[in-house]
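Hi everyone, sorry if this is the wrong subforum. Our group has a chain we'd like a structural model of before ordering constructs, and none of us has done structure prediction before. Sequence below.
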Amino acid sequence: MSDILIKNATILKQAGQINTKQSILIHNGHIQQVGAFPCPIKFTGEIVDGADRLYLPGLIDSHLHTGQQLLRGRVLDAKPVIWTRIMLPFESQLTASQMKLSAELAALEMITGGTTGFVEAGSYHMESAAEVYARSGLRGALTTSTMDDPQLPASIKMSAREAVAQTTQLYQQFHHQGRLQVYYSLRALTACSDELIDLAAEAAQTHHTFLTAHMNEYPTEILNIIQRTGLRPYEWLAKHHLLNDHFLGAHSLFLSTQERKLIKKNRVKLCHCPFSNAGKGIPVTSELLQNQIPVGLGTDGAAHGGLSLWNEIKIFRSLMVATHGLRLRQPNVMPAAQIFRMLLEGGAAALNHAGQLGKIQPGYKADLIAIDLNQPHLYPSGNWQNTLLECVNANDVTDTMVDGQFLMRNRQVLTLDQERIIAEARNYACHH
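Answer:
Right subforum, don't worry. Here is the predicted structure as tokens:
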């Protein structure tokens, strides 16, 4: 792996800190030096001109569903309940070849939009997706859709042991292959038996990896768990000693005071998905952050508006202002720097890389993206942090790098055949 020196760039070193006329020296996939320094003597690596570019850490999608990539545009405005009427029937009929195409499209969308890391929340035929993601160069955590509800369609019906075994097989094949990890999961507590919940948690602890679950996403879901156990979801898991610093609770919109205390006590990681969550409820994110609870941001997959985290942060800011900000008469209730801290550092925590991703500083992994600033909708700017939030879109990303390797350069994807994948997607659309 050759060394790379990026010169004369504007850099977001960490959320809230942007400096101009900076250099970044990358060695063996890690950031070695950052700042205003001359080119090292006898430097034999590649020198990249960073003029008119803003470099920042790669974005991290803390919650997506690869298997819903081909559902784009079919969920918005659909009659409820979309999970049982649209999503579950679709996923139950998904083939391995369709999953491969889904993963290729998802990887392309992430690479071209500046997302370098992601957490898969559970799909089927994940071996097909894993092979694609390994080839793409992205950094990701994979898992399977883990449920044992007897009412599931026959094609995806399985016992608790079978559900966990499919994730173990994925773990054995792909955990730490390239830049991939494998998490265990609970797709939804309401669709998981007590046996499955215990087995999945035990397997995650045995393999020293994360357990991720959809949590507190709907009031009816919470009521169902209360009727089943007498406790709210996080209280129930805590009673069974299943909460720890390797638990990732997606959504987590409706949290009681006691649940927030349990989340903090057990150092649980959380993730919000603004576009998907907007029609369900608004989280009390400021209170969570004030209690030092790591919170990342996710897209929830292409069925919920695509995989652009640039869209998600705009929506999230608007939701926070329209709800908590208006009530408190505080329009900056969720400042731009705080949102980027969630996206980058909260995402790093969700991806089990806290202290290794989310900043451009010596010792961190060289997962970087570059934004073309020389555009009418971006330039000039009185505050680049604000402009990143307000104005940047996915197609403003020119370069995407993971571990010091370019996955995209000057909008040209290097690790996947974009033309072939789009052609296959077009053919799929014509026949479905």
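For your construct planning: The first strand starts at residue 4 and ends at 14. The chain has 14 helices and 18 strands.
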